[in-house]
């Protein structure tokens, strides 16, 4: 179509004119927009979403069915209808007015009441269980008080009654019931049983030494006490030996043979499933039935435990040395002590009269002590007290008056005592005993300690022997004290040079002949010579007994001194140093699975491997604490620096050095089973002794004792059962 045709078409088309007009109007509007400011458009109102408010949950209209939607603050949930709603209060109110919602909300309320009731019942049940547990704890704690303080169980009813009267606002106290039978049952089958079970579990997994002794209690019943010493694995980082009673076993009083003692011991270990293999040492008194080479308790233990060592009680041994040596002195010396103490202590009237003499002379009021037949440590204090009273004018004045008022000599004891008080040699013997028993008793008292002293036994035994021998032997003859003939004249000092003590020498120097004639002077010289010979006989007897009874030649105990930090750190090349511990290593290599060469190497490198700055620190620490530090030392690969030596030290540390802990155990028996409680049964006696001993070994008492779930699990009707 050409241009003329298009123009003719547009003119003939009726819509063309309208389109042209529209384009013209649009163009005019654009031109006006360029020259005029357009009017502002009006803002449309947009509603913001509402946020859920926690306060609506407490509104009575919404309570019970309205729930918050976590993560969607603009939403809410109706738990009755199980629908999600917009979090607007007006919307929620409209939903609450709906008939369907009201119906479902009523149903939900009914169901919730049942749930709440069930929940409340469960809560009440839990609270009741907690309260019952608190009551049990209180009863166990009270029973621990009775056992720990040796209070008779029959007083428990009255004590709880007083507590209920005083503490009326305590529901625990009001619900407590603790009669004698229940208190007995708790001590037997709750407290003591848990202590024994824990102890037996420890002994199954570690090495221990045992101390045994037998004795008769207040009810004339024979008991075998079994005390164990071990490193408790329940105290990590505190590897210190613990000593406690395993059991107090009842014996047949008509048969206390070695076989009977062993059977009682074996039965206890079997009952608690403790392997004999874990026993590494035995300490007991020196009775043949206990330590005899054949057919003894020790011979049977040695068959089961070949690596175990026997450690006769050093305290018993030292006491026996004193006893046998004293028997070489005139018998009237010790008899005089006993007679004087009995004469004064057996009569209140005589004691009062002696007190009047002491007041008259303005002297210190002192009583005479009585020596015990089986307690040789008491002999020295008795001698010391006698010497103090002998120096007072009141004592001799008292007996002079008694004898003056008894011309017919009816009171023979008073005349005998006065004769001995006037005998200067009796006083000299007492001074000698005061000097020499002091040496023996220091040794005895040291090894009655509760500390670990196995590393001191060899050294102190040699020190005791040398101290004693220096009084009567030449110093250059004491190289081998374990083998030397202490009675050979070649080794002895001249009689007049034998050391008797300053007090004894002074007493002898004051003895004068009466009357002063050549004959009386010769007689006095003979008496003094005889006196010195008696004292020398005392010395030689004591020295021979020490050679027999104390470990002067025991290599195991000599090498056990490596536990001492000073010995452990001393350079091996120094004079007097402990060169090696090969005997210990070879004795226990199989038991401890030791690498022999590695252990020897560790021993040799100790002095120069441990930093020098630590040497003085370790030497100043107690032995157990020092070994805690040594255990913590690590090598470059974070392994123990002295792993083999530490294993050996842990074992040697639990070897017994004396039987004093068994004696202390019997002290508990004596304290518990008194004249008023002499009908106490064996099971009850054993339980109290085990509990008290265990508390002491842990360093706790009935206050610091903690009731554990194990105790609570055993507090039930079965605790009344008896074995």
Automatic annotation (TrEMBL):
> Could you tell me which residues belong to the region Disordered?
1-48
Please name the InterPro entries in this protein's record. RNaseH-like_sf
Q: Which domain of life is it from?
A: Eukaryota
Biased composition annotated in UniProt, kind: Acidic residues: 1-20
| Compositional bias of kind Basic and acidic residues | 21-31
Residue spans crossing the bilayer: none
Do you know which PANTHER family this protein is assigned to? BED-TYPE DOMAIN-CONTAINING PROTEIN, HAT FAMILY DIMERISATION DOMAINCONTAINING PROTEIN-RELATED
Name listed for the protein in its UniProt record? Protein FAM200B-like
State the organism named in the record. Answer: Thrips palmi (Melon thrips)
Source taxonomy:
Eukaryota, Metazoa, Ecdysozoa, Arthropoda, Hexapoda
């Amino acid at each position: 179509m050409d241009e003329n045709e298009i123009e003719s078409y547009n003119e003939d088309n009726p819509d063309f004119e309208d389109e042209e007009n529209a384009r013209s109007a649009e163009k005019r509007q654009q031109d006006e927009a360029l020259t005029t400011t357009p009017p502002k458009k009006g803002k449309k109102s947009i509603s913001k979403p509402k946020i859920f408010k926690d306060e609506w949950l407490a509104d009575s209209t919404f309570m019970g069915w309205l729930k918050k939607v976590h993560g969607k603050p603009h939403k809410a949930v109706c738990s009755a209808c199980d629908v999600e709603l917009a979090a607007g209060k007006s919307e929620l109110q409209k939903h609450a007015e709906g008939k369907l919602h009201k119906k479902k909300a009523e149903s939900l309320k009914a169901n919730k009441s049942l749930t709440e009731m069930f929940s409340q019942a469960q809560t009440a049940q839990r609270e009741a269980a907690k309260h019952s547990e608190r009551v049990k704890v209180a009863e166990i704690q009270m029973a621990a008080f009775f056992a720990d303080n040796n209070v008779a169980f029959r007083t428990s009813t009255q004590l709880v009654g007083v507590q209920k009267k005083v503490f009326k606002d305590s529901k625990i106290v009001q619900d407590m019931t603790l009669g004698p039978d229940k208190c007995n049952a708790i001590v037997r089958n709750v407290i003591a049983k848990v202590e024994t079970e824990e102890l037996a579990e420890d002994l199954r997994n570690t090495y221990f030494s045992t101390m045994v002794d037998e004795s008769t209690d207040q009810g004339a019943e024979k008991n075998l006490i079994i005390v164990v010493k071990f490193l408790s694995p329940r105290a990590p980082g505190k590897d210190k030996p613990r000593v406690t009673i395993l059991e107090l076993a009842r014996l047949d009083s008509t048969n206390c043979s070695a076989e009977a003692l062993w059977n009682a011991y074996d039965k206890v270990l079997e009952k608690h499933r403790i392997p004999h293999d874990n026993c590494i040492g035995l300490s007991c008194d020196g009775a043949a039935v206990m330590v005899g080479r054949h057919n003894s308790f020790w011979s049977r233990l040695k068959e089961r435990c070949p690596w175990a060592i026997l450690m006769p009680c050093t305290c018993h041994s030292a006491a026996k040395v004193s006893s046998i040596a004293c028997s070489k002195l005139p018998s009237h010396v010790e008899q005089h002590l006993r007679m004087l103490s009995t004469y004064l202590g057996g009569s209140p009237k005589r004691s009062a009269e002696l007190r009047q003499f002491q007041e008259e002379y303005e002297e210190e009021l002192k009583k005479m002590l009585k020596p015990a037949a089986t307690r040789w440590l008491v002999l020295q204090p008795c001698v010391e007290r006698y010497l103090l009273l002998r120096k007072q004018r009141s004592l001799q004045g008292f007996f002079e008056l008694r004898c003056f008022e008894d011309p017919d000599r009816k009171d023979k004891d008073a005349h005998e005592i006065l004769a001995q008080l006037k005998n200067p040699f009796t006083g000299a013997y007492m001074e000698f005993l005061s000097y020499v028993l002091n040496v023996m008793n220091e040794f005895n008292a040291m090894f009655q300690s509760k500390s670990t002293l196995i590393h001191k036994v060899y050294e102190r035994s040699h020190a005791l022997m040398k101290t004693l021998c220096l009084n009567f032997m030449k110093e250059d003859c004491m190289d081998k004290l374990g083998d030397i003939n202490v009675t050979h004249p070649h080794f002895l000092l001249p009689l007049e040079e034998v050391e008797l003590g300053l007090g004894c020498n002074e007493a002898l120097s004051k003895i004068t002949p009466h009357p002063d004639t050549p004959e009386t002077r010769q007689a006095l010289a003979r008496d003094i010579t005889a006196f010195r010979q008696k004292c020398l006989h005392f010395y030689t007897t004591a020295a021979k007994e020490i050679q027999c009874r104390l470990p002067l030649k025991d290599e195991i105990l000599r090498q056990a001194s490596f536990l001492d930090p000073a010995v452990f750190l001393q350079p091996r090349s120094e004079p007097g140093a402990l060169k090696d511990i090969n005997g210990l290593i070879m004795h226990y290599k199989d038991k401890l699975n030791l690498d022999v060469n590695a252990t020897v190497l560790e021993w040799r490198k100790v002095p120069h491997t441990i930093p020098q700055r630590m040497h003085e620190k370790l030497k100043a620490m107690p032995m157990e604490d020092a070994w805690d530090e040594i255990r913590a030392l690590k090598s470059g690969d974070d392994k123990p620096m002295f792993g083999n030596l530490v294993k050996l030290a842990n074992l040697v540390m639990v070897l017994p050095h004396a039987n004093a802990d068994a004696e202390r155990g019997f002290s508990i028996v004596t304290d518990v089973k008194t004249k008023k409680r002499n009908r106490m049964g064996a099971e009850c006696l054993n339980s109290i002794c085990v509990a008290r001993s265990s508390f002491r070994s842990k360093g706790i008492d009935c206050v610091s004792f903690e009731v554990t779930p194990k105790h609570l699990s055993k507090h039930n009707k079965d605790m009344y059962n008896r074995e």
